[in-house]
């Protein structure tokens, strides 16, 4: 991409230019040194927005002396709160699947288990490509030094030649393989051509980063001094203030509609966005017809990052629970909803199904949940409105989004279903006695072996704790 009007600026001017929120910012150029021939080349910068994904900084280098070219993607905007793992199954003979676009950040790792092959973050830095392009680039980089290898280590060179043949077979669709893109920073992406519907070949997992991953990404730091701070305020007023600070007034209103906490505890923590020390507030509260829940809220004075989280209290329920409500009027849209991170969401009328883990744990209303689902789908399916998108797929997404938003107009009744294997999700009744709410249905069921396995319950051994807390008196 070139423009005669693009000014030649120094690096400081480029940084100032791309720091604005203007999506129509021009393409800027800087002179930079070519790493191959050590002559001056040109690097072009462009800050752009991938629709429903996030802002990225594209840089492309070109050297007129040796024709060296490369491009790089860097990410602008906020740090993602969780890491991401994309797993894509490629059958043999399907060349079209290899055209899926891929955003690979500088912290992402690509793996192909069948070949025992891994592209580490430093091998291919931030890039915007396709699955085919990534694999072909990897094979070209392996091929680049083969002549020298054959002179020094012919046996290794021969093994690499055999491996390149297998890699190219994957890149051309001749062999089936699994493509795994894992990014602890959460800034990578694989296109779903079936959006907004689920892709049967693609699975997405979001996970909490470990402390080691946070440290390697520069999001956390090792502290040599342990700070001890006293617990915070006591009472319902302090609880309301704590939650309002950590999230939104709506969040606080939804919780305090039922019960107020007796004690709010405050303990030191680290901001997940800027790694500065901050406070986390926590309290235990009881929600009628549900259970005890632990509410945690934190806010960072340094960067303004706010986060609230709700966890179930008490023991793991012996059975799962499916909660469904028939949404018929405005009052139903105002029902409070607690969705845990293990709950899946279904709306049969529009063929919508969100697997467990999507959206995480949220406290909201029925209307708020639909709004969050719409925003999350638009954010995840980043290439939905890309320039290369087929018109039919674009219209499919626009139609689905219209149907999703249309639910809030209540032109026709619809059903919201939350299936939670850990029974930690809840939809509030519209009357004082839950038995009188005939639109609300609660089904308790036995978890399957597969569900227990996914939750890690099959391997959980509590015999040692049972012996301590429930001693058996064997005395005569």
Automatic annotation (TrEMBL):
<dbReference type="GO" id="GO:0008270">
    <property type="term" value="F:zinc ion binding"/>
</dbReference>
<dbReference type="InterPro" id="IPR004457">
    <property type="entry name" value="Znf_ZPR1"/>
</dbReference>
<keyword id="KW-0539">Nucleus</keyword>
<dbReference type="GO" id="GO:0005737">
    <property type="term" value="C:cytoplasm"/>
</dbReference>
<dbReference type="InterPro" id="IPR042452">
    <property type="entry name" value="ZPR1_Znf1/2"/>
</dbReference>
<dbReference type="InterPro" id="IPR040141">
    <property type="entry name" value="ZPR1"/>
</dbReference>
<dbReference type="GO" id="GO:0005634">
    <property type="term" value="C:nucleus"/>
</dbReference>
<feature type="domain" description="Zinc finger ZPR1-type">
    <location>
        <begin position="32"/>
        <end position="192"/>
    </location>
</feature>
<dbReference type="Pfam" id="PF03367">
    <property type="entry name" value="Zn_ribbon_ZPR1"/>
</dbReference>
<protein>
    <submittedName>
        <fullName>Putative zinc finger protein ZPR1</fullName>
    </submittedName>
</protein>
<feature type="domain" description="Zinc finger ZPR1-type">
    <location>
        <begin position="269"/>
        <end position="429"/>
    </location>
</feature>
<dbReference type="InterPro" id="IPR042451">
    <property type="entry name" value="ZPR1_A/B_dom"/>
</dbReference>
<dbReference type="Pfam" id="PF22794">
    <property type="entry name" value="jr-ZPR1"/>
</dbReference>
<keyword id="KW-0863">Zinc-finger</keyword>
<keyword id="KW-0862">Zinc</keyword>
<keyword id="KW-0479">Metal-binding</keyword>
<comment type="similarity">
    <text>Belongs to the ZPR1 family.</text>
</comment>
<keyword id="KW-0677">Repeat</keyword>
<dbReference type="InterPro" id="IPR056180">
    <property type="entry name" value="ZPR1_jr_dom"/>
</dbReference>
